[in-house]
Amino acid sequence: MNDALSRDQIRTSIRQKRQTLSAQEQTQAGLDLLSHIQQLPQIDQAQEIALYLSVDGEVDTMPTIQWLWQQNKKVLLPVIHPFSKGQLLFLNYTPTTPMIANQYGILEPKLDQTQICPLASVDIIFTPLVAFDDSGQRLGMGGGYYDRTLERGFETGTGASAIGLAHDCQKVAQLPIQLWDIPLATIVTPKQIWHWENNFNAL
């Protein structure tokens, strides 16, 4: 119970921090994030890259999405699975993709079976997070969608790289850990690239 409370307290505190960033700070953070993503060794060879649309003060991913389009990379967005509770699908995302709001009010591609990309084909999964710590542990919003996706990828050996994205203000010294938490080997912020060699990277 104490861990659960502390995790919720961390979520509340960090979300408030990133929500206070000004529009100018958010714009600059998105550009700075892209400059570091461009340095990732995985990017050159990757063809199918999962990202997400930023909400709730998350660091702006649109500059990265637009740059990936320019590099002729296939950008994928998560869609909540309509039948498998708590699971994600990844669908192709282009400037003309029809979008709808999901149960959380977040825009996602309208479900189209012809646009689904199998998890085994995804090269990089850029994951959102609320907070991260000195050991690469990630704290999400609490729904467990990405934890399940990363666990499923690890078990099936998809070969995808899981990389977290965050503002620098989202880092804390240590997070309370749950059994299902999947630590990340790489997290990118506007100021730097964090890397932990002993954590999962290739799923």
UniProtKB/TrEMBL annotation:
<dbReference type="Pfam" id="PF01812">
    <property type="entry name" value="5-FTHF_cyc-lig"/>
</dbReference>
<comment type="similarity">
    <text>Belongs to the 5-formyltetrahydrofolate cyclo-ligase family.</text>
</comment>
<dbReference type="GO" id="GO:0046872">
    <property type="term" value="F:metal ion binding"/>
</dbReference>
<dbReference type="GO" id="GO:0035999">
    <property type="term" value="P:tetrahydrofolate interconversion"/>
</dbReference>
<keyword id="KW-0436">Ligase</keyword>
<feature type="binding site">
    <location>
        <position position="58"/>
    </location>
    <ligand>
        <name>substrate</name>
    </ligand>
</feature>
<feature type="binding site">
    <location>
        <begin position="138"/>
        <end position="146"/>
    </location>
    <ligand>
        <name>ATP</name>
    </ligand>
</feature>
<feature type="binding site">
    <location>
        <begin position="7"/>
        <end position="11"/>
    </location>
    <ligand>
        <name>ATP</name>
    </ligand>
</feature>
<dbReference type="InterPro" id="IPR024185">
    <property type="entry name" value="FTHF_cligase-like_sf"/>
</dbReference>
<dbReference type="InterPro" id="IPR002698">
    <property type="entry name" value="FTHF_cligase"/>
</dbReference>
<keyword id="KW-0460">Magnesium</keyword>
<protein>
    <recommendedName>
        <fullName>5-formyltetrahydrofolate cyclo-ligase</fullName>
        <ecNumber>6.3.3.2</ecNumber>
    </recommendedName>
</protein>
<keyword id="KW-0547">Nucleotide-binding</keyword>
<feature type="binding site">
    <location>
        <position position="53"/>
    </location>
    <ligand>
        <name>substrate</name>
    </ligand>
</feature>
<keyword id="KW-0067">ATP-binding</keyword>
<dbReference type="GO" id="GO:0009396">
    <property type="term" value="P:folic acid-containing compound biosynthetic process"/>
</dbReference>
<dbReference type="InterPro" id="IPR037171">
    <property type="entry name" value="NagB/RpiA_transferase-like"/>
</dbReference>
<dbReference type="GO" id="GO:0005524">
    <property type="term" value="F:ATP binding"/>
</dbReference>
<dbReference type="GO" id="GO:0030272">
    <property type="term" value="F:5-formyltetrahydrofolate cyclo-ligase activity"/>
</dbReference>
<keyword id="KW-0479">Metal-binding</keyword>
